[in-house]
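Researcher: I'm preparing a figure for a lab meeting and need a structural model of a single chain. I don't have an experimental structure, so a prediction will have to do for now. The sequence is pasted below. Please return the structure as tokens so I can convert it later.
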Amino acid sequence: MRLEHICIHNYRLYHHIEMDFPRKDEDMHIVVGDNGVGKTTFLNAINWCLYGDEPHAFSEESSLPIPNLEASDDDAYVELTVSSDSGHTIIFKRTYISENNNDLLVSVKSPTGETDYFSGEKADIEVDRFVPMAIREFFFFDGEQLDTYFTSDRTKNIENRIFILSHIELIDQMIERLTEKRKEFNKEASKLNKDVEPKRLELEKKEKALNKEEKRLKQLNKSKQDAEDRIKVLDAELKGIPDVIELEERRDDLKKIISELEGDINGKLEEISELVLLTAPSVFSFEAIDFTLKDIDEKYQTNQLPPQIDQNVINESLDGGVCKLCNRQLDEESIEYLTKTLNDYNLSSKQSKLLLNLKSPLKLLENELKTFSKRREDLNGTLVAYRKSLKEYTDELNIVKELYAGYEDDSIKDKFEEREKQETVKQNSLIKIGSAQKNISNLKKDIEDLNNEIDDILSDNKKTILINKKKQLCDNSLKLLTRTKDDIMLSTKKQIGNYTKDKFFELIWKQDTFADVTIDDAYNVKLIHNLTNSNCLGTASAAERELLALAFTLGIHSVSGFSSPLLIDTPLARVSGAHRVNFTNVLLDVSKEKQTILILTPDEFSPDVRDLIYAEQIQQFGIVQIDELHSEMKEMSKKTMEEFIEMLRRKSNVSG
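Model: Understood. Here is the structure written out token by token.
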């Protein structure tokens, strides 16, 4: 879909403007205007037309009523004409009635000429086909917010918005409906088979507990993310204060060392546990092993154990009358001796044979026990050393905390104390998240077992065979839908991540500073530094954060399935030089596939940007201020735009 025409009538600063947006090879359109003359009003007009609100900040405009004060009539409206990929023409028109009352009318004209009209909820549905309200911030947004994009509320529910973009909510609705049907089948079966009822009640209890625990986990993840976001902000603020830069660096070093030591300690504790578990049987059997080995040795020494002989050799010698070892003819004395030896061996007890067989493995266990003590002492020694170092570094970190507390500047102390509290919240949340995840895993296993038990009961009863088949169909469908949902979410996250990374490195000029861009399961973006291999988003410059935010937004567009326009107000305010040129080139590239409208200040529309825009013959508009309450928007040629910008520059110099 693309915006073909906009009409703004008696809306705030605009008396009446109409703009056409014809498509060229690059579907980009530029709007240039000074601050306070109606740039944000233009963005708000589009939002008001579609959604009935004005989400972006005004300045002095905020005190004005929606109808233009110089209007000759009371009629105020905004009208958007949109063309769809299927050839339909959609007109969204919202009319101002009173301060708290307005009316949206949508007309949809088919390629064959028939027109349908919608109002109320049906009109809102047509708006959702264009850009759903829940995800509009990815399509119509204020570029100045790009600097705080990753620490603001914009990304708090990013996963839910990705659900909408990926149309996952449709699968969720199907899963919810099938889950309800399965419950209905269980209730129906319980009426026909009394054995089902207790299982069904237990199943409902477990499912309610699972739902409660999943909500708890979601809230814990939100608390953790909120704490992390706030910590990032406080880190950046404290690192920007000259008086505490060295203290911050030492604190970071200490926390890293302490974290590594805690990991080492946990590793050694696991080694000790593993060692104890592996050698526990030998340790507990030490007295028995020692006694048995001594008993075997004593029996050897007192000849209580039979000699180790080869019975086959003796039998063959006796049968042939010739010794198989020396080939000597056996006489009566030799035959008598060999016969007695063989009989004595056969008469020896089974316990004696067992003792002989046990000696070798018992010796191995004895040697293992000798090395166990040495290994345990070594591990304990290392553990003590780690703990000693941990105490020393923890004591030093506490000294750093005391130094913060000693600052006379209350703002420094307050920021530090808040960060400490947020880190405690984060740590506590992590512990509770682990517990919740374990509970969820156990509950899912219990639910699976109960469902299997109910299936077994139903399959053995003729009355419930049909119900069981319906229930199994629900179960199979749920498994397929859940797997499909997981696959889509994984593919979506991967596509957004790859697009974000590629576009960011296309935008950034410091190619060697950053190693990677990653996105976790909650769609939190991390900027990985090339040297530290850690997330450095909190310390990145405003320009770098803006470029990453743009790349992420474009990544979201790449999977959205919505071909609606991208409209950005003030996108280049905090970027300059190579970044600004790269920013513009990326948006020009995007505009080949998606309509892009940029609302710029004269400073943003700098010579290097203008050269790129002029070269592609991009459509340009200028916002001309008639007076304090009235602005107009005019399409301009290259020459007219240059004169317009020069006029704004002179005006700025005079006022300065």
